[in-house]
Design a protein that fits this description.
Strand content of chain A: 25-35%
Structural class of chain A: alpha+beta
Oligomer: homodimer
Distance between the termini of chain A: 29 Å
Largest sheet of chain A: 7 strands, antiparallel
Number of helices of chain A: 4
Order of helices and strands of chain A: HHHEEEEHEEEEEEE
Number of strands of chain A: 11
Number of domains of chain A: 3
CATH superfamily of the largest domain in chain A: Umud Fragment, subunit A
DNA sequence: TTGTCATAAAAACATTTGTACTCTAATACA
DNA sequence: TGTATTAGAGTACAAATGTTTTTATGACAA
């Protein structure tokens, strides 16, 4: 948790905070103090300032002093989901505990130039990447920095784009499937263009 | 695409647009015209005004007239990633095409009460859900509406919480693993509390 | 009661900011 | 070459906005 002990909000603070989050989600920019004033049914900006200061002290928001509409919400980035614990997928026994952490998808999504590919086929099935999955990829700047075992999307001229494990042995490059039914592809360095390396897998059911 | 034919941007417009998107991603609020002016290396706000007007005409941005820092980016919602095509995971041959679609994770995330669980174990491995994966779940309001074959997280009192395929046959409930090493669990209605059904799988590498 | 504290109102102020206007330089075109 | 067009500089101004100060109110404890 980024918020610690004494960070509980009063009702008024909480109401304001919730309203701000809604506003910023809808409009992609910060409201002005006078807008918040109206929304909270107040007739003076001072109470809003006070609540904002408290929200700032408790680590919920921040802003650039003196600048109009420059608020930022500290904690909640879009794409955050509470993790309610773990679940047995086997014989293990577990029960839901409280919320321990948040799953933050935006951490991956906000990387520069992330793109997605639809997976077509079953050659990566042993890596638990199935037909129809979406793979989120990050462009590869320096193909020399690729580590063995990384999953990459590689374009082999004349062969097309394929998702495989990357291995480098000797002067050769090997692209290996995660499925014994498929043979490794052996290539020389200039024969392949790496388009991206795997960041995450997304499957919607 | 929401943008149509004559919506191509000039270099200057494109540079500004890219800068705005970055700024708004980083700061969660709109920049001011004078900030953009500086960022573009200009010494007068007029050119920025002109470019903004063009961006607005072409449907890329909007703002509230006269209000400070009220810009909105029209197209890009957070949690949206461009899909660059599909990739072969097998023998298929495919090449990257243009951007066809966007992958919108927020569609799932914005459902009410979505929560995540860490998968512990390998009993769902044949459904391509591996140890360490995060499963995004939706609370189940009405357990009668559950369809056979749905993946659910179920709490069996005395046994814990487990991720399994749900089946209903006769008056009985069966919870089946996606791994032949595990036996199905047979239960009566009432002996089990369903906590959620699977919406999506997320794996960060 | 009295004093303290938190909250709200009201008013005033300085800065930030969007917008409009004029002028100049560069560019394209006939 | 001359003219039209466009982009940018410079300036000015009114509105929006954050901030400060002063005062009033109510709750609550000493």
């Amino acid at each position: 948790m980024t918020t610690s002990e004494g960070d509980k909000l009063t009702d008024a603070q909480n109401e304001l905070y919730a309203w701000i989050k809604n506003y910023m989600r809808d409009f992609q920019h910060s409201p002005s103090i006078r807008q918040m004033m109206q929304a909270m049914g107040l007739k003076s900006p001072a109470p809003i300032q006070s609540r904002l200061k408290h929200l700032q002290d408790k680590g919920y928001i921040s802003w650039q002093e003196g600048k109009a509409r420059t608020m930022q919400i500290i904690d909640e980035i879009s794409g955050v989901v509470p993790i309610m614990g773990s679940v047995a997928a086997g014989g293990l026994i577990e029960t839901y505990s409280d919320v321990n952490e948040n799953l933050d998808l935006s951490e991956v999504l906000q990387k520069k130039d992330v793109f997605a590919l639809t997976v077509n086929g079953d050659s990566m099935i042993d890596a638990c990447i199935a037909h129809g999955d979406m793979v989120l990829m990050e462009p590869i700047k320096d193909s020399n920095s690729l580590r063995n075992g990384t999953i990459v999307s590689a374009m082999v001229p004349g062969l097309g784009t394929t998702l495989k494990y990357f291995f480098k042995r000797g002067g050769k490059i090997f692209l290996e499937a995660a499925n014994p039914a498929y043979e490794p592809i052996e290539l020389n360095f200039g024969d392949v263009i790496f388009q991206g390396k795997l960041l995450a897998v997304w499957r919607k059911v």
